[in-house]
């Protein structure tokens, strides 16, 4: 008997912010294939706080890239806010990323020649927001992350913790549906890590959906749910 094709389970509108069904990712399929993800099923509801953990090579980064529309699955279905995005490419994916996803990276990825305020403003420029709206949002977000007096400083004039706070403010600029944080405390000292996790906790308490990739138990403990990966599979 032929295997039945997986279909998404029935859900209420609030449940289906993120839904992966049978998602696999294979790199170099025509040469030496590398199976980065294998038949992953995952649901994340609006307002959840989820940590993704696993050893090196388990597929954490690949899963993060697919969730953030930086990559597409080889097979399977990925729905974001009820919209099937797994087959989107190019401009459609870029639009989804800028509108629905905020990224916080381990290495910050701020532009060194821009000030903190100008880095936060970038997503708004890409979204073609008017100048007065950009100024209002940037001022509000810098205040939210405790950096109202540091907006004119460039990244090399800020501490590691301050730079990561700027990255979080930038991630929030377009009010995305989800914040994806990839090893957000990897380059921080313990005090800066504590301050950053307190900020992420407050964002989730205010209703923001967070997905954090980490290998640190101290970071994962802040999440309400932990997803473990091993050899590309959810275990």
Task: Give structural notes.
- There is one protein chain.
- This protein has one domain (18-234): Rossmann fold (3-Layer(aba) Sandwich), CATH 3.40.50.300.
- 36% of the residues are buried.
- Mean pLDDT is 88; it is low at 1-14.
- The chain is 32% helix and 24% strand.
- Strand 4 and strand 5 form a beta hairpin.
- The strands form two sheets. A six-stranded mixed β-sheet has the order 6-7-8-3-9-10, sandwiched between helices. Strands 2-1-4-5 form a four-stranded antiparallel β-sheet, covered by helices on one side.
- It is α/β, with parallel strands linked by helices.
Quaternary structure classification: single chain
Share in β-strands: 15-25%
- CATH class wording: Alpha Beta
Helix content: 25-40%
N-C termini distance: 27 Å
Query: What would you call the shape?
Result: globular
Structural class designation: alpha/beta
What's the SSE pattern?
EEEHEEHEHHHEHEHEE
Beta strands, count: 10
Q: Which strands sit side by side, in order, in the main sheet?
A: 6-7-8-3-9-10
CATH superfamily label: P-loop containing nucleotide triphosphate hydrolases
Query: Which regions contain 5 or more consecutive residues with pLDDT less than 50?
Result: 1-14
CATH topology: Rossmann fold
What is the CATH architecture annotation? 3-Layer(aba) Sandwich
**Count of discrete alpha- or pi-helical segments spanning 4 or more residues:** 7
What is the alpha-carbon Rg in Å? 18 Å
Q: If you average the pLDDT, what whole number results?
A: 88
How many domains would you count in the coordinates?
Answer: 1
Largest sheet: 6 strands, mixed
